[in-house]
Amino acid sequence: MLLIVGGHSLFQSRHTITNPSQQHNKKINSTEPAANNNQMKITVNNRTIEATMADNSSAKAFLDWLDEGDQTLTLEDFEGMEKVGNLHKQFPTNDTPTNTEAGDLILYQGNKFVMYYGHNSWNFTRLGKMEGISATELKQLLGRGNVTVTLEHN
User: Fold this and answer.
1) Which ranges does the record mark as transmembrane (predicted)?
2) For all residues of the chain together, what is the average pLDDT?
Protein backbone atom coordinates (compact mmCIF):
# COMPACT_ATOMS: atom_id res chain seq x y z
CA MET A 1 0.00 0.00 0.00
CA LEU A 2 1.29 3.44 -0.84
CA LEU A 3 -0.10 6.60 0.76
CA ILE A 4 0.92 9.85 -0.93
CA VAL A 5 0.26 13.20 0.74
CA GLY A 6 1.46 16.39 -0.92
CA GLY A 7 3.64 14.43 -3.33
CA HIS A 8 5.51 12.59 -0.53
CA SER A 9 5.20 8.93 0.34
CA LEU A 10 4.23 8.58 3.99
CA PHE A 11 3.72 4.80 4.23
CA GLN A 12 4.78 1.98 2.01
CA SER A 13 4.13 -1.68 2.62
CA ARG A 14 4.51 -4.76 0.48
CA HIS A 15 1.92 -6.68 2.50
CA THR A 16 -1.43 -7.60 1.02
CA ILE A 17 -4.46 -7.10 3.18
CA THR A 18 -6.62 -10.19 3.10
CA ASN A 19 -10.23 -10.44 4.08
CA PRO A 20 -10.24 -12.62 7.24
CA SER A 21 -13.51 -14.27 6.18
CA GLN A 22 -11.83 -15.49 2.99
CA GLN A 23 -9.11 -17.16 5.03
CA HIS A 24 -11.74 -18.76 7.27
CA ASN A 25 -13.53 -20.16 4.21
CA LYS A 26 -10.28 -21.61 2.92
CA LYS A 27 -9.90 -23.59 6.14
CA ILE A 28 -13.50 -24.82 6.04
CA ASN A 29 -13.26 -25.82 2.38
CA SER A 30 -9.84 -27.42 2.75
CA THR A 31 -9.44 -30.86 1.25
CA GLU A 32 -6.96 -31.88 3.93
CA PRO A 33 -8.38 -34.59 6.19
CA ALA A 34 -9.08 -33.87 9.82
CA ALA A 35 -6.98 -35.71 12.38
CA ASN A 36 -7.77 -39.45 12.41
CA ASN A 37 -10.18 -39.03 9.48
CA ASN A 38 -7.94 -41.35 7.49
CA GLN A 39 -8.43 -44.31 9.84
CA MET A 40 -10.40 -47.45 9.12
CA LYS A 41 -11.40 -50.31 11.40
CA ILE A 42 -11.23 -53.90 10.20
CA THR A 43 -13.01 -56.54 12.28
CA VAL A 44 -11.96 -60.15 11.73
CA ASN A 45 -12.98 -63.05 13.99
CA ASN A 46 -14.08 -60.67 16.77
CA ARG A 47 -10.81 -58.71 16.69
CA THR A 48 -10.71 -55.11 15.52
CA ILE A 49 -7.60 -53.78 13.82
CA GLU A 50 -6.94 -50.12 13.08
CA ALA A 51 -5.64 -49.18 9.65
CA THR A 52 -4.16 -45.92 8.45
CA MET A 53 -5.27 -45.15 4.94
CA ALA A 54 -3.03 -43.94 2.12
CA ASP A 55 -3.10 -40.38 0.84
CA ASN A 56 -4.57 -40.93 -2.63
CA SER A 57 -7.88 -40.60 -4.47
CA SER A 58 -8.52 -44.36 -4.20
CA ALA A 59 -8.33 -44.40 -0.40
CA LYS A 60 -10.46 -41.26 -0.20
CA ALA A 61 -13.15 -42.79 -2.45
CA PHE A 62 -12.97 -45.99 -0.37
CA LEU A 63 -13.51 -44.08 2.89
CA ASP A 64 -16.35 -42.09 1.30
CA TRP A 65 -17.96 -45.43 0.40
CA LEU A 66 -17.59 -46.62 4.00
CA ASP A 67 -19.22 -43.38 5.18
CA GLU A 68 -22.38 -44.69 3.49
CA GLY A 69 -22.29 -47.66 5.87
CA ASP A 70 -20.07 -50.45 7.18
CA GLN A 71 -19.18 -53.10 4.61
CA THR A 72 -18.92 -56.83 5.26
CA LEU A 73 -16.85 -58.78 2.74
CA THR A 74 -15.93 -62.41 2.25
CA LEU A 75 -12.25 -62.70 1.39
CA GLU A 76 -10.78 -65.77 -0.28
CA ASP A 77 -7.24 -66.99 0.28
CA PHE A 78 -4.92 -66.57 -2.68
CA GLU A 79 -1.53 -68.27 -2.97
CA GLY A 80 -0.80 -68.27 0.75
CA MET A 81 0.01 -64.53 0.87
CA GLU A 82 -3.26 -62.59 0.70
CA LYS A 83 -7.01 -62.55 1.21
CA VAL A 84 -9.03 -61.10 -1.69
CA GLY A 85 -12.67 -60.01 -1.88
CA ASN A 86 -14.87 -58.49 -4.55
CA LEU A 87 -16.10 -54.99 -3.73
CA HIS A 88 -18.95 -55.04 -6.30
CA LYS A 89 -18.03 -51.42 -7.00
CA GLN A 90 -15.38 -49.73 -9.13
CA PHE A 91 -12.95 -47.31 -7.46
CA PRO A 92 -10.32 -45.03 -9.01
CA THR A 93 -6.90 -46.65 -9.24
CA ASN A 94 -3.46 -45.22 -8.53
CA ASP A 95 -1.33 -48.20 -9.52
CA THR A 96 2.39 -48.00 -8.86
CA PRO A 97 5.08 -50.70 -8.58
CA THR A 98 4.53 -52.00 -5.05
CA ASN A 99 6.31 -54.46 -2.78
CA THR A 100 3.71 -55.63 -0.28
CA GLU A 101 4.25 -56.90 3.23
CA ALA A 102 2.00 -58.24 5.96
CA GLY A 103 -0.64 -55.69 6.90
CA ASP A 104 -0.83 -53.89 3.57
CA LEU A 105 -4.29 -53.08 2.21
CA ILE A 106 -4.46 -53.00 -1.58
CA LEU A 107 -7.04 -52.14 -4.23
CA TYR A 108 -6.61 -54.55 -7.12
CA GLN A 109 -8.08 -53.80 -10.56
CA GLY A 110 -10.22 -51.08 -8.99
CA ASN A 111 -12.78 -53.53 -7.59
CA LYS A 112 -11.04 -56.00 -5.29
CA PHE A 113 -10.00 -55.47 -1.68
CA VAL A 114 -6.82 -57.30 -0.66
CA MET A 115 -5.35 -57.87 2.80
CA TYR A 116 -1.74 -59.05 2.64
CA TYR A 117 -0.20 -61.35 5.19
CA GLY A 118 2.79 -62.17 2.94
CA HIS A 119 4.98 -60.56 0.31
CA ASN A 120 4.25 -59.76 -3.32
CA SER A 121 5.46 -57.34 -5.99
CA TRP A 122 3.20 -55.92 -8.67
CA ASN A 123 1.53 -52.72 -9.86
CA PHE A 124 -1.07 -52.06 -7.19
CA THR A 125 -3.05 -49.24 -5.65
CA ARG A 126 -2.15 -48.87 -2.00
CA LEU A 127 -5.20 -48.28 0.22
CA GLY A 128 -3.55 -48.40 3.62
CA LYS A 129 -1.72 -50.32 6.32
CA MET A 130 -2.98 -52.26 9.34
CA GLU A 131 -1.46 -51.15 12.63
CA GLY A 132 -0.49 -53.02 15.79
CA ILE A 133 -0.45 -56.55 14.43
CA SER A 134 2.55 -58.71 13.51
CA ALA A 135 2.78 -60.83 10.38
CA THR A 136 2.46 -64.00 12.49
CA GLU A 137 -0.60 -62.71 14.37
CA LEU A 138 -2.23 -61.58 11.13
CA LYS A 139 -1.70 -64.94 9.44
CA GLN A 140 -3.19 -66.75 12.45
CA LEU A 141 -6.13 -64.34 12.64
CA LEU A 142 -6.98 -64.69 8.95
CA GLY A 143 -6.61 -68.47 9.10
CA ARG A 144 -6.99 -70.80 6.13
CA GLY A 145 -9.63 -70.50 3.47
CA ASN A 146 -12.31 -67.80 3.38
CA VAL A 147 -12.69 -65.15 6.06
CA THR A 148 -15.38 -62.56 6.69
CA VAL A 149 -14.28 -59.01 7.49
CA THR A 150 -16.22 -55.88 8.38
CA LEU A 151 -14.81 -52.53 7.35
CA GLU A 152 -15.81 -49.21 8.87
CA HIS A 153 -14.57 -45.64 8.67
CA ASN A 154 -13.78 -44.20 12.09
Assistant:
1) none
2) 83
